[in-house]
Amino acid sequence: LLAWKDVLTIKSHCSTDCHFFQKSEELLEEVVLSRTLNHLRGHVGHVQNATSSFIEILDTRVCQGPYDAALIKAWEDWDEKCGSENDHPKDFPIYQRYVISVLEHGGEDLERFVLLNFDEARSLLVQTTAALAVAEAAYEFEHRDLHWGNILLSRKESETLQFVLEGRQFLVPTYGLHVSIIDFTLSRINTGEDILFLDLSSAPELFEGPKGDKQADTYRKMKEVTGDCWEGSYPKTNVLWLQYVVDILLLKKSFKRTTKDERELRSLKKHLNSCKSSKEALQDPFFSDLLVDIHVTEDLAS
């Protein structure tokens, strides 16, 4: 089993610049949120909502001390290859504490992954939409930061992927592509015991990105939808990120497609304007031939 480590830095009192640290309370909430989404990976035949499209957490540990040389080299290799937006770990104090999560290997992010054709693009959209719809139904989940760096893609041999949404079991074609959604730092969830969220009203810089930038515009649209009250349930935010993904496919990704395919993507983006949730979005005609009810398939087979 291939896995990768996500190292999160716990905020502490220090004399150095601490803008890259996170509060321990925020990190704990993110770990709890991630593990709650893991519950959606349960046996699909015995649950009301199920999806395997959120990254699986294999283990989580808290540690303290200087960054290991192997981890520093891994960070520097990544920075040289892809360019990291984070501070160099050598700048952390030697007594720094960290949360280390071991995750399944979800593949390469959408920004760097090479899509081959329109079928793969459609599968990416239906898997992402279905996963969000399932999490909405189960936990009032909103990702709130689903940019192209937080959608991982990998190629696998399985031809279909199973979802359960409010008891309805259905398959979607993968065309060999599998989606894994990651990074729940800004996400909101209702675990049944607590509502976990990050109060983005305390991070005004998030909404100050350049106008016309699709990611920055989506943050601002979220603020309009929520009224800057981030504890509440606003599944429309998931729809905003689905529209963002459609824009990315149209504007940033090159793959084999026709003018008809592009019209379908633009039509989907337009239809999403009237959707209040991912569940509503999943009912769009764009997805109609990509959702196969299992019990209907079994009835036809018999």
TrEMBL record:
What's one Pfam family here? Haspin_kinase
Q: Where in the cell is it found?
A: Chromosome; Cytoplasm
What EC number(s) is this enzyme filed under?
2.7.11.1
Q: Which GO terms describe its biological process?
A: intracellular signal transduction; mitotic cell cycle; post-translational protein modification
Keyword terms: ATP-binding, Chromosome, Cytoplasm, Kinase, Nucleotide-binding, Serine/threonine-protein kinase, Transferase
Residue span, Serine/threonine-protein kinase haspin C-terminal domain: 204-287
Q: According to its record, what are the GO cellular component terms? A: chromosome; cytoplasm; nucleus
Which reactions appear under catalytic activity for this entry? L-threonyl-[protein] + ATP = O-phospho-L-threonyl-[protein] + ADP + H(+); L-seryl-[protein] + ATP = O-phospho-L-seryl-[protein] + ADP + H(+)
Q: Which GO terms describe its molecular function?
A: ATP binding; histone H3T11 kinase activity; histone H3T3 kinase activity
Q: Matching PANTHER family, A to Z?
A: INTERLEUKIN-1 RECEPTOR-ASSOCIATED KINASE, SERINE_THREONINE-PROTEIN KINASE HASPIN
Question: What protein name does the entry list?
Answer: non-specific serine/threonine protein kinase
Q: Which organism is it from?
A: Kalanchoe fedtschenkoi (Lavender scallops)
